[in-house]
Queue: 2 jobs
Job 1
Amino acid sequence: MNLIVMKDYNEISRQAALLVAASIALKPNLVLGLPTGRTPVQMYKELVLIHRNGFVDFKNVVTFNLDEYVNLPRKNPNSYYSYMQKNFFRHVNVRKENIHIPDGMAKNIKEECTRYEELIRAKGPIDLMILGIGHNGHIGFNEPSDEFVPETHIESLTEKTRIANSKYFGSLSKVPAKAITMGLGTIMHSKKIILLASGRDKAETIKRAISGNITPRFPASVLRLHRDCTFIIDKEAAEMIKK
Ligand code: GLP
């Protein structure tokens, strides 16, 4: 696992955006795995700027989002579908048919998980997977658990995650209880993984991900077994890493 520590949030965002753009320059039909949350917002802004300046073309890029809430209509502003439109897809030229986000409103959620997993297998492997990290070490919505769940599946969100995400929903009761997420195996099959983290509130999380036990009780720890995984984090998030 590689670690890059940069000055602040703006720097890690720019670095991640440049990495995505460079990967697309090298492989125009890149298969790109995408996260949501607060952390990647600035990376998306930078990518939109690079695109507007004519330095990156998403025409042949294929995207797969990590996760989506179950039972939240796509048009709800808190759905990850809405998040992606607002922060990224509306501003760039990824083709509609190349955008993949799990359908949290599917009649049969289990079947939707299978469909999504098979689609990733058919179009993948994912060349470049960008991740954020939850305070409890979750990646995508893979919550701490007794075992690593390999494939796309339904996840019951922990109280901690629901509380963290309730700031977007206004109240805890409005946060969906379940989500569809790529599994840890799906994520680990990506050729290259970049994890972004920013801020002091992520320092303990990053310390555990980097130096704690590799265990499904702290899902991000599994990334240390990946051949090409880089954490790009700012100084504040790096504060508790032993020098
Ligand atoms: C959500 C998402 C994750 C994300 C995490 C951290 O629960 N499902 O993909 O990494 O939150 O979010 P933030 O970047 O807002 O701290």
Job 2
Amino acid sequence: MTPSSVTLVEVGPRDGLQNEAVPVSAAQKIELVHRLQAAGCREIEVTSFVSPKWVPQMADNAEVMAGIVRQPGVRYSVLTPNMKGLEAALASRPDEIVVFGAASEAFSQRNINCSIAESIERFRPVVAAAHAAGVKVRSALSCAVGCPYQGEVSADEVERVVLLFQDIGVDHCGIADTIGVGTPGRVVAAMERALKHFPAAEVSGHFHDTYGQALANIHACLALGVHVFDTSIAGLGGCPYAKGATGNVATEDVVFMLHGMGITTGIDLDALVDAGAYISGVLGRAPVSRAGKALLARRRQAVEVAA
Ligand code: HMG
Ligand code: MG
């Protein structure tokens, strides 16, 4: 079942930067997107069209979308929580939008200020309008194994929301471990519920790495035939409404593992490490990515040996 190639959706510019205390300018975000696409990333989640009062870090969404020089073959996606967000997003010509709901009522309330049922009714016209505009719709299902407010989340709760997403016609179902508490058995159980209702090509994993389980979870999902994963450059990320959760699994670490397994990604790891070093420099810290740090150290050693 293990796929020979994997698609990585780079969520660093959105998930990575939405929770950053250090201000990052629109020009720096645009530069990051350019470096990611130059490294071979073909799916990039650029920004979100959410309320700037809720997430001020994404208030420059239209400026960032207008500033990127688009590369043929790259898909640019944005988050849209409601019709207001979709209307603003469409003016920026995304290839794909993301509606985001949760398997836990408490997280739905904290993150998007409504119940699960209300969120689905909000998303219904968003999905229809996006499709009418020829734009693909991805869904993200947060708290698929655990919730910062509710605690454990069952696979039954996940499947209930998978079915609600299917009912409103989303094209893709992303299973998200928002707080990174999932271990392979529990993540596989959640993922299997998505695979019951969506084809493998339209199911993805989005694993925050708070407890260091994300690579193990991706490895377990590969065995199910899942071959699309969200990852974040330099391990950036978090959700303002999931306190204590750290970043997404680092793209560099996932690429290192996949290439080591003989699985192609189309990504140039060296150029990716440069992109990670760039954004980490902007944020004034070292990349969280273990592979990124190791490859940067190896480069420094090679320079010292040559000198
Ligand atoms: P609300 O306050 O309930 O919305 O927020 P409202 O409809 O009552 O509107 C209130 C005000 O917000 C109004 O402005 C609206 O115009 C404005 P006012 O009249 O007060 O001046 N407004 C907007 N402005 C800009 N863009 C919009 C928009 N909508 C309303 N789209 C809302 C509801 C969903 C908007 C709010 O809760 C929100 O923006 N939440 C943001 C949540 C968020 O971005 N979370 C992080 C992303 S999700 C995530 O990270 C998880 C993921 O990575 C997967 C995982 O890891 O689990 C995807
Ligand atoms: Mg996330």
